Amino acid sequence: MQATVTPPFSATTITIISRSIPHIRSPCPQCAGRTSSLSTRQFSSTRRRDALVKNNVTNIDSRLPRQSSMKSQVHKASKQQMGNDLGKLPQTLILPPSSELPPWTTLKRTKIHWLQLKTAFKDWWSLVVFLKWDAKRDPLTGKKMRRPMELDKRRDYAQVLHEQFHIALGKGDMRALQAMCCEGLAGAARTRIEKRKALRKNVERWELLGYFGIGYPAWLDKWPLSPLLPNHHARVVSDRLAPLPVADSYIRQCIVRIRSRQQYQLADMDKRTTHRHTDYVVIQKITTKGEEGHWRLWGLTEPTTMDEIDTMLAGGTKDVGVTLVERIRDKISNLAGL
């Protein structure tokens, strides 16, 4: 048995259909590039045109990135950009010795001590606000993450850093100096070590013989009584906390007056010598975006001069050098190349 296949169209039908459809010739290869865009365009050219414009704008923005302002750069500054050497905080009052102050019988002496009392209270209140009152809350427990004020440990930190710095400087231990010092002091120490190496003296002898002043018992030598004890060998003369122009960042700077007896022989000395020194040691701690650093030695400073005290008594805010915010902006602008 054979199967019969019947074609769906007859030959006559195929001929009629082929005659009704015109023959479309394909363009030659030379004319293909000149074909009208109307014959190859999409059904709607609006979306395509918008897409092309959008792509062009995106490409222009990628080639010419938008520059952020200095204020934005300061707020987005990282710990490395700011560094750890921002200088001494402006408007820091360090009372000079009594011999350099006016007599007690004058009204100016009273005004100076009243200014000292107001400054000390304002600085103490800033510590309370930043470390206790305005502390952030733990996202899990909801409790405030208060930080210790370390009022009884400030002098100990300053004395330890003061002694360790001189020992490391005498040995020429730059690794220890970089760990305990700010950038400026570490650079000055490196320069001093290189200079004495030129004299073929790699080591300087230094020894702390002790402190001079009244030694008070431990139960009495505690805050808030310790600042009132007279003739102390180590006393906190300034403790300030200032916010930085970065979110959840601030700097705490503490100045401790240390009276010590030191014996040393420097690179340009022929024999050892013993002297009494009154050093105003500056230590600081920087908290950057909630991450608290450790205490570092910034260096030594001098008491406030009478001219600066007169400016502060007159209500002036002008300070020698630039302000703290201007120092940070200068650092960031130098790194950004602006």
From TrEMBL:
Its main location: mitochondrion. Keywords: Mitochondrion, Transit peptide. InterPro entries: mtLSU_mL45. Signal peptide: none annotated. It is found in: Mitochondrion. GO terms for cellular component: mitochondrion. It comes from the Eukaryota. PANTHER family: 39S RIBOSOMAL PROTEIN L45, MITOCHONDRIAL (PTHR28554), LARGE RIBOSOMAL SUBUNIT PROTEIN ML45 (PTHR28554:SF1). This is Tim44-like domain-containing protein. It comes from Cladophialophora yegresii CBS 114405.
